[in-house]
């Protein structure tokens, strides 16, 4: 039995051992994009074996860090050159607007470039042992074999945040992207091979999480598992990784507050709140899904938000007039539908949306931008991630109350504060228990700045110097001279 050779194990493109396949459909119109291999758990175990052998051989990890860095910079250059081909593949898998995928590709190239340069700077660290007879130093070494598991909303971006630091630090890896969005993972592995990453260092398995992904948290030959995805899956992975005391990095969900004070620039705040909540149809871990608005401007703010939300044009990835796209699947659309129905049953006021796309949009998994006002504190609408184009509205009367509401979540990924009072912005930003705080903005991030969550939004950080440290062991060498 053979299927398409889209798994990459030990430097070879191979089909799944049992010939299993999966059809990939574009969520914008349901068309078949391609058929790829569906790995079995045994395929993943073989990939882990290849990564283990490549790591133990030491050829990759013992290269000068600057040489590994040069290779990552070559990846960045090629990604820039081929950005449109990558963006097209990403848009077909996700339904995301092509222009958004193009932005993602620029960010991905920047990520490879950043870690490429950071790798080159690694010289370890000297420690003052307090004696002229002792030379004490810290040497940074790779963790070993990394299992990298990524989601479907930013398929290559989330994978790149793991691949680039893992390689920069000298690790080998097995990547398992979301089963729904495999194409840019295939393309990046081709590119890594092309620029000279040795066989066995970068491996790829495609398929369902509980089958193809599970060995990456279970197997004793994996030293680190880095996962981006939902909270429920993160708990399963952390529990399973505990059996072999792997290092675990988790980037999970968010329920991110967007706090608007009455003295904020009204038009900019409304404009930005729409983008925060509805870009990529809200399928963003850091989406501004909870508006926390000062009472005195509530009516005016929500009226304008609703008026503008009703005008947002939905469409497929290559529809240039579209402002946002479909949800990833009809199954996900059903989940978002259930979330909104529950919110309304709990007393929320549906101000707009709450419906599937109609007419031309009925063929894809579209859901209209939705505003839920009057949500109750503690209700599922404000505690659970909808991961769709849905924004809830809560109000506050004082700065203290704004902070209390914004921090009233088990998550802690990101949040924003809008005010023309710089002192208040800084005060509130410091009191918010979230990994990224935007002031008078929403969504920008930098490869050189750490990204990650407080609370149940995760463990560890991606990007920035800490993002490289996740993939390194610090070894202390104490030399009695
Ligand atoms: P998911 O948890 O369903 O799946 C994520 C990945 O895990 C997929 O590759 C999936 O196949 C795999 N998986 C599932 N079960 C597994 C198992 N038992 N063992 C190993 N792998 C398994 O998440 P999703 O629906 O793909 O992504 C959406 C979620 O990701 C949202 O909750 C979102 O907030 C989160 N997310 C977080 C960040 C962040 O930076 N914190 C970024 C993007 C997405």
UniProtKB/TrEMBL annotation:
Entry keyword annotation includes NAD: yes
Active-site residue list: 251
Every Aldehyde dehydrogenase domain range: 13-477
SUPFAM superfamilies per UniProt: ALDH-like
Pfam family, any one: Aldedh
Keywords, in A-Z order: NAD, Oxidoreductase
Keyword ATP-binding attached: no
An example molecular function term from Gene Ontology annotations: oxidoreductase activity, acting on the aldehyde or oxo group of donors, NAD or NADP as acceptor
InterPro entries in alphabetical order: Ald_DH/histidinol_DH (IPR016161), Ald_DH_C (IPR016163), Ald_DH_CS_CYS (IPR016160), Ald_DH_CS_GLU (IPR029510), Ald_DH_N (IPR016162), Aldehyde_DH_dom (IPR015590)
Pathway(s) this gene product operates in, as recorded in its UniProt entry: Amine and polyamine biosynthesis; betaine biosynthesis via choline pathway; betaine from betaine aldehyde: step 1/1
Similarity comment: Belongs to the aldehyde dehydrogenase family.
Name of the protein: Betaine-aldehyde dehydrogenase
Organism: Microlunatus soli
Lineage: Bacteria, Bacillati, Actinomycetota, Actinomycetes, Propionibacteriales
């Amino acid at each position: 039995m053979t299927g398409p050779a889209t798994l990459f194990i030990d430097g070879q493109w191979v089909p799944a051992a049992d010939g299993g396949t999966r059809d990939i459909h574009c969520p914008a119109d349901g068309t078949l994009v391609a058929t790829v291999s569906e790995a079995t758990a045994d395929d993943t175990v073989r990939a882990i074996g290849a990564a283990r052998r490549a790591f133990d051989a030491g050829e990759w990890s013992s290269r000068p860090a600057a040489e590994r860095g040069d290779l990552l910079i070559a990846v960045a250059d090629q990604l820039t050159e081929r950005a449109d081909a990558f963006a097209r593949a990403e848009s077909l898998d996700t339904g995301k607007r092509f222009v958004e995928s193009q932005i993602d590709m620029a960010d991905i190239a920047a990520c490879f470039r950043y870690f490429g340069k950071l790798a080159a700077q690694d010289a370890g660290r000297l420690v003052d042992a307090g004696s002229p007879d002792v030379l004490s130093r810290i040497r940074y070494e790779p963790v070993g074999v990394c299992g990298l598991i990524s989601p479907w909303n930013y398929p290559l971006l989330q994978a790149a945040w793991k691949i680039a630091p893992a390689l920069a630090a000298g690790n080998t890896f097995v990547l398992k992207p979301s089963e729904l969005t495999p194409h840019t993972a295939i393309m990046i592995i081709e590119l890594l091979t092309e620029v000279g990453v040795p066989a066995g260092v970068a491996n790829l398995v495609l398929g369902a999480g509980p089958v193809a992904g599970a060995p990456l948290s279970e197997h004793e030959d994996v030293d680190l598992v880095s996962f981006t995805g939902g909270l429920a899956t993160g708990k399963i992975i952390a529990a399973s990784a505990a059996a072999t005391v792997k290092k675990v990095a988790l980037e999970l969900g968010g329920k991110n507050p967007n706090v608007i004070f009455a003295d904020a620039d009204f038009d900019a705040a409304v404009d930005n709140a729409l983008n925060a909540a509805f870009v990529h149809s809200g399928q963003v871990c850091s989406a501004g899904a909870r508006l926390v608005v000062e009472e005195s401007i509530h009516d005016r703010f929500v009226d304008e938000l609703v008026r503008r939300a009703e005008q947002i044009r939905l469409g497929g990835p290559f529809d240039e007039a579209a402002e946002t796209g479909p949800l990833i699947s009809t199954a996900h659309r059903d989940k978002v539908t259930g979330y909104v129905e529950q919110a309304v049953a709990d007393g929320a006021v549906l101000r707009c949306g709450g419906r599937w796309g109609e007419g031309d949009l009925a063929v894809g998994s579209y859901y209209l931008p939705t505003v839920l006002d009057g949500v109750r504190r503690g209700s599922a609408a404000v505690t659970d991630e909808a991961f769709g184009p849905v924004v809830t509205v809560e109000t506050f009367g004082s700065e203290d109350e704004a902070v209390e509401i914004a921090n009233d979540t088990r998550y802690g990924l990101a949040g924003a504060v809008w005010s023309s009072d710089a002192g208040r912005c800084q005060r509130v930003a410091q009191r918010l228990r979230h990994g990224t705080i935007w002031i008078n903005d929403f969504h920008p991030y930098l490869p050189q700045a750490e990204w990650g969550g407080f609370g149940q939004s995760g463990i560890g950080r991606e990007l920035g110097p800490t993002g490289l440290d996740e993939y390194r062991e610090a070894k202390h060498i104490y030399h009695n001279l």
